[in-house]
Specification:
Distance between the termini: 75 Å
Oligomer: single chain
Largest sheet: 2 strands, antiparallel
Radius of gyration: 26 Å
Keywords: Repeat
Family: Belongs to the PPR family. PCMP-E subfamily.
Number of helices: 21
Number of strands: 2
Order of helices and strands: HHHHHHHHHHHHHHHHHHHEEHH
Pfam families: E_motif (PF20431), PPR (PF01535), PPR_2 (PF13041)
InterPro entries: E_motif, PPR_At4g14850-like_plant, PPR_rpt, TPR-like_helical_dom_sf
Structural class: mainly alpha
Protein name: Chlororespiratory reduction 4
């Protein structure tokens, strides 16, 4: 199973005269990781009741989570407590909280939190981390902070989860202050800590604070920055309009920049109208990956912004010759565990006509308002 040889594993499994809970759990886990969740589900349902334990339930829940079937993972958790009469362990709670976080279902998250409190579950480990992450991703950063502050035995993962939660809510100053508090309490930060705080600084325009964190990472904690950290600095400088400085930073990096970092700089050039740096960056990106349409589109839009229509035509002709198409814009909303995607001018959704009708009615002027205006 660990080698991904599921056919060999299944052949051996079928030959076994006697199977135990661990054997079933291994097969369920293997099928789920190889994206064959239907087979994993069938095996889980086929398990004898005597072999269905917390480990096998966790394997099925984790399999659903890995395959973005979040409601199904939640369903197994409720079956554990009810139909199967099992007591969820820390792994069970962490998995179900992760599923709820992905769904953004705050009510379910609060219910699991209540269950955790009723059972006096220790929050100093992964359950506390998952609880902070769940509240943050469900939009309740206040609850996340409440949980964080009430955990007495916090480790670096708890701090990382809270800093990351503040970052995704654009609370850069609070994230930076929390990082400085972390420094004062002598909690040793890791790579993830600095990705979180640098990202928070980028989204809040905190240039000085972001550069300070980067220097603390290198000089105080002797951590070697990775591509993600360098990318965050480029983002910090680019968002603040320091395009030339961001460009020099990339050139002076001790490791080669990837396409994500160059595209971050190109986006900043577009946002701040810096065509001088944008052109060579776009051409470099096209040389790196000529099949990726995003670089062409960014450059074309920038030319259009400057009214350089000959250059716009040149870029679009290049895209046609290389048979590249712009990836359409996409919006999505999650409703009761189901993700609904909507592409530009896409009518494939089952309720597209109903949605369109409702939008048309919303955009129609109110006759009473018009009457009053007349």
């Amino acid at each position: 199973v660990k080698c991904g040889k599921m056919e060999d594993a299944r052949e051996l499994f079928d030959r076994m005269p006697k199977r135990d809970a661990l054997t079933w759990a291994s097969m369920i886990d293997g099928y789920a990781k190889s994206r064959k969740v239907e087979i994993a589900e069938a095996m889980f349902k086929a398990m004898p009741e005597r072999d269905r334990d917390v480990i096998s339930c966790n394997s099925m829940m984790a399999g659903y989570l890995q395959n973005s079937l979040f409601m199904e993972a939640l369903s197994v958790f409720h079956c554990m407590k009810g139909e199967f009469n099992l007591i969820p362990d820390d792994t069970s709670l962490s998995i179900v909280l992760s599923a709820i976080a992905q769904m953004g279902n705050l009510d379910q998250g609060i219910a699991i939190h209540s269950y955790i409190e009723q059972n006096n579950t220790f929050l100093g480990g992964k359950v506390g981390v998952s609880l902070i992450d769940m509240y943050s991703k469900c939009g309740s950063v206040e609850n996340a902070m409440f949980v964080f502050k009430n955990i007495k035995e916090k480790n670096v993962d708890h701090w990382n989860a809270m800093i990351g939660g503040l970052a995704i809510h654009g609370l850069g100053e609070t994230a930076f202050d929390l990082f400085m508090e972390m420094e004062r309490t002598y909690i040793e930060p890791d790579d993830i800590t600095f990705i979180g705080v640098l990202s928070a600084c980028a989204h809040s325009g905190l240039v000085k604070e972001g550069l300070t964190c980067f220097e603390i990472m290198r000089r105080v904690h002797k951590l070697e920055p990775k591509l993600q950290h360098y990318g965050c600095i480029v983002d910090i400088l680019g968002r603040a309009g320091h395009i030339e400085e961001a460009s020099r930073f990339i050139e002076e990096m001790p490791i080669e920049a990837n396409d994500v970092i160059w595209r971050t700089l190109l986006s900043a050039c577009r946002n701040h109208g810096n065509l001088t740096i944008a052109e060579p960056v776009a051409k470099h990106l096209i040389d790196m990956d000529s099949s990726n349409s995003s670089s062409y589109v960014l450059l074309s839009n920038m030319y259009a912004g400057f009214g350089m229509w000959n250059e716009v035509h040149m870029v679009r002709t290049m895209m046609k010759e290389r048979k590249l198409k712009k990836i359409p814009g996409c919006s999505w909303i999650e409703l009761e565990g189901i993700v609904h995607e909507f592409f530009v001018q896409d009518q494939s959704h089952a309720r597209a006509a109903e949605i369109r009708s409702l939008l048309d009615n919303m955009s129609m002027p109110d006759p009473q308002i018009n009457c009053c205006r007349n």
